[in-house]
Design brief:
- The protein has about 260 residues and is α/β, with parallel strands linked by helices.
- About 35% of the residues lie in helices and about 25% in strands.
- The chain has helices spanning about 5-15, 20-25, 85-95, 135-140, 155-165, 185, 190-195, 205-215, 240-260, and strands at about 30-35, 35-40, 55-60, 65-70, 75-80, 100, 105-110, 120-130, 150, 175-180, 200, 220-230.
- Strands 7-11-10-8-12 form a 5-stranded mixed beta barrel. It has a two-stranded parallel ribbon with strand order 1-6.
Length: about 260
């Protein structure tokens, strides 16, 4: 990990207990996990991975959950967090207590352009930071900010993941993302958000890639399109056909890609 993350972790330990990932998520520091999955609201059970993987619930509360997913020789640590950049940062920075080879973010994403459809699985080409939480993470002074900065993933690793998906019969689509701090308030600012000309909108991927850079491990965000404001497909109130498409992306493509990426 980078020195900045070591400082963040050491300072957290100074004012709190050590072994916070064990206490919060039940994940052990003496195991080398093939991957860490971080997922706002998604559990392995929600993706039906318990049908073909061994899934062990380690800790579970109203907003947080820790799970161990095992398949053949793979050991995948899984943390469910609440939504938003601040929740993602709080828990993913603490994951520096653990040892893992890769980190995978999974979640839902809204489309802002007509050529993205419900159920498509996407990965960010870049994410625009729309949350001040990112500035707390990156800037030395909280008086500074990085609002609306572009955050890029490691393109070489992303290309590998897209290629891996292609071999498995999936079209993992690359698209730019605007990261919003609020779902309810994004709609009143939608015209202004569209002026950034991104393809997609969600809440956490700029923060995810910033923390992943500090962790210094390969990282990929996999997002399933849940709605499209450009075509009138609502987040709440999908048709049966739209729900079927969404379920395929979430319950078929995402789990298969998680296992495939963990095994890379």
């Amino acid at each position: 990990m980078k020195e900045k993350l070591k400082k963040i972790l050491d300072t957290c330990h100074k004012y709190n207990s050590e072994h916070m990932m064990l206490e919060t998520f039940g994940l052990r520091e003496d195991i080398m996990y093939d991957a860490l999955v971080v997922a706002p609201s998604f559990t392995p059970y929600k993706l039906h991975m318990d049908a073909y993987c061994k899934v062990t619930t380690l800790r579970e509360s109203a907003y947080l959950g820790g799970y161990l997913v095992e398949k053949d020789n793979l050991k995948i640590a899984w943390i469910k967090t609440a939504s938003s950049a601040s929740n993602l940062i709080d828990h993913l920075t603490l994951s520096a207590e653990l040892s893992f080879k890769k980190v995978i973010f999974i979640g839902a994403v809204g489309a802002l352009k007509e050529d993205f459809h419900v159920g498509d699985v996407c990965t960010p080409s870049y994410s625009i930071s729309g949350s001040y939480a990112d500035s707390f993470l990156i800037k030395e002074s909280i008086r500074d900010n990085m609002l609306f900065s572009k955050v890029y993933p490691d393109k070489n690793f992303i290309d590998e993941v897209i290629g891996l998906g292609k071999k498995r019969g999936y079209d993992i689509r690359s698209g730019s993302v605007f990261c919003t701090p609020s779902i309810a308030l994004e709609y009143v600012h939608l015209d202004e958000i569209r002026s950034f000309d991104t393809d997609l909108i969600e809440m956490e991927t700029s923060s995810f890639y910033l923390v992943a850079d500090l962790l210094e491990v390969p990282a990929v965000a996999l997002l399933v399109v849940s709605d499209n404001s450009a075509t009138g497909v609502a987040l709440v109130g999908r048709t049966d056909e739209e729900q079927e498409q969404y379920d395929k992306g979430r319950n078929v493509v995402l789990p298969d890609m998680i296992l495939a990426v963990a095994g890379m």
